[in-house]
Backbone:
């Protein structure tokens, strides 16, 4: 029997970047908020012994327990989906701060093209350029509308970057609050080669602080130590901007946040038109609670947002056969695989040192910054060289043809560990009618609830993109003065292993048509006006960039929308 708790004004489900930002903004405005986080609490003291590659990078200390809840996967609807039993393609964070704790800190705004991708593509190339089955659409918001919220995120997080950005990236109304990261010798080789080819490289904007910084909320933090333990790790210095050291302390210090960890939400309660609250389980005790609320905010990771809506029967599930419904539509991933290794016999680099966002990149082949008229794909990729800290267990480079084990393998990997640089690309991912999320009819979690099912595969669009972009990475690599280069220019069938990217998007997409989108441009749900759904699940495709900047900017805009709704309930225009 569930215990019914006293009604509260606002309940937030998931306390990562999105939940933390919204909680901070609403509590600063005087609103009382209940924050429900299914994982445990965390702070910087938990990471004093974090430099343990085996524990965190290989055994996934900060990640979700897949024996209790996971994702099932298949390439097509004709296949039987099987559960991901061990971590592979992507990493699902768990605990206070969510994936915001174990990210690298690479910060990119999406391009203006991204937000109006359908109309801009048709305007330049005609409607026939969009292949049958590709479901790209305008987001219902423009870059200029979102730009002030990018600024808010940057000022809060202390994003560091160059004073000006290239012309082929969106204009900035305010410079980054601190300067860029250091430029390593390898970064200079990459930039010099790119410039000689006429491209426009820049140091990657970084959420790893580059100097002591106090943000507008009065949170002061120390700079990055370039230790190389960012992705899959928490930062013991608090230098990497994450929710636990930035926005959550603001909300907690307000006295208006009731933060409840170990609280796993299993259902949104509603009457068909409005949410009335949520049902959750205290994971250590198994006790069940009902938390009534005036406003429900979903701010969990993509798979959890979609799954919770489907479990709650809130919104219309997407049906790929009829192309109707909205919840689960437009799943998109990230298309990687285009890269070139540069091997040096007469020079070594210190590849163990680095930072999650240490590197340089350029966008001359991202978005629609280049002519696609004669190409068999849309969008493109951010091309970059990063020096994120290559640790000994997982980084074992060797030339093609080297045995995969034994004495020769050891000899070659030791020799090339600091003699191999990689020019890589992070490619966009377009949505397709047959790529979607739904509930698995067979597999269930530890509570007996259906798991989320992912149906996805790479398309000819993706293979053509990788082939084209790989040739661009080789151009850069060939100019970096190495002994030889090795290009990788193909991808085949998508599989749930090995690791590729944690940048999943879609499933509760935003738009202007309630029939084909779940939320409006304030992330307010069409089918229940007092429900707001935030995070990368609202993206209708994925860019050639990391999604965190846009996730954060949209969270700030949603917080404005929620404040307007609290003052005057009703649909937001």
Residues:
């Amino acid at each position: 029997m569930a215990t019914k708790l006293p009604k509260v004004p606002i309940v937030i489900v998931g306390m990562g970047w999105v939940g933390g930002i919204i909680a901070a903004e609403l509590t600063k405005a005087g609103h009382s908020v209940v924050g429900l986080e299914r994982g445990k609490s965390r702070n910087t003291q938990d990471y004093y012994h974090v430099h343990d590659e085996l524990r965190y990078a290989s055994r996934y200390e900060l990640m979700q327990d897949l024996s209790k809840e996971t994702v099932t996967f298949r390439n097509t609807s004709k296949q039987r989906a099987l559960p991901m039993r061990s971590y592979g393609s992507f990493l699902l964070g768990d605990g206070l701060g969510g994936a915001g704790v174990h990210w690298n800190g690479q910060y990119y705004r999406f391009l203006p093209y991204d937000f109006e991708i359908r109309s801009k593509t048709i305007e330049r190339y005609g409607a026939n350029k969009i292949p049958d089955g590709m479901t790209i659409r305008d987001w219902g918001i423009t870059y200029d509308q979102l730009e002030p919220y990018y600024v808010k995120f940057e000022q809060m997080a202390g994003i560091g970057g160059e004073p000006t950005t290239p012309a082929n990236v969106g204009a900035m109304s305010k410079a980054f609050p601190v300067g860029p990261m250091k430029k390593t010798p390898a970064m200079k080789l990459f930039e010099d080669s790119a410039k000689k080819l006429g491209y426009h490289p820049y140091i990657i904007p970084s959420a790893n602080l580059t100097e002591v910084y106090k943000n507008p909320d009065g949170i002061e933090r120390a700079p990055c130590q370039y230790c190389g333990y960012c992705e899959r790790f928490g930062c013991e210095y608090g230098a990497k901007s994450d929710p636990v050291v930035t926005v959550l302390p603001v909300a907690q210090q307000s006295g208006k946040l009731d933060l409840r960890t170990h609280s796993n939400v299993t259902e949104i309660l509603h009457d068909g038109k409005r949410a009335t609250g949520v049902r959750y389980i205290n994971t250590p005790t198994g006790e069940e609670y009902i938390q009534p609320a005036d406003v429900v905010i979903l701010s969990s990771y993509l798979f959890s947002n979609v799954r919770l809506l489907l479990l709650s029967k809130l919104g219309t599930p997407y049906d790929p056969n009829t192309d109707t419904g909205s919840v689960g539509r437009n799943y998109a991933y990230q298309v990687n695989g285009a890269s070139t290794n540069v091997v040096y016999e007469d020079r070594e680099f210190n590849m163990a040192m680095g930072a999650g966002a240490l590197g340089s990149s350029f966008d001359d082949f991202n978005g629609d910054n280049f002519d696609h008229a004669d190409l068999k794909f849309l969008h493109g990729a951010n091309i970059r060289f990063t020096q994120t800290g290559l640790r000994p267990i997982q980084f074992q480079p060797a030339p093609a043809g080297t045995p995969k084990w034994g004495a020769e393998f050891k000899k070659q990997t030791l020799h090339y560990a600091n003699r191999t640089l990689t020019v890589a690309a992070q490619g966009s991912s377009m949505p397709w009618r047959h790529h979607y999320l739904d509930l698995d009819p067979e597999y269930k979690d530890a509570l007996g609830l259906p798991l989320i099912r992912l149906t996805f595969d790479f398309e000819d669009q993706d293979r053509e993109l990788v082939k084209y972009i790989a040739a661009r990475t080789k151009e850069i690599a060939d100019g970096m003065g190495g002994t030889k280069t090795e290009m990788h220019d193909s991808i085949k069938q998508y599989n749930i292993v090995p690791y590729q990217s944690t940048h999943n998007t879609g499933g509760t997409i935003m738009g202007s048509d309630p029939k084909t989108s779940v939320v409006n441009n304030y992330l307010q749900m069409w089918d229940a006006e007092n429900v707001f759904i935030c995070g990368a699940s609202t993206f209708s495709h994925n860019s050639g960039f990391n999604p965190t900047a846009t996730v954060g900017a949209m969270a700030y805009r949603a917080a404005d929308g929620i404040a307007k709704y609290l003052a005057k309930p009703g649909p937001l225009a």
User: Anything to note?
Assistant: The first strand starts at residue 3 and ends at 4. DSSP finds twelve helices and 22 strands in the chain.
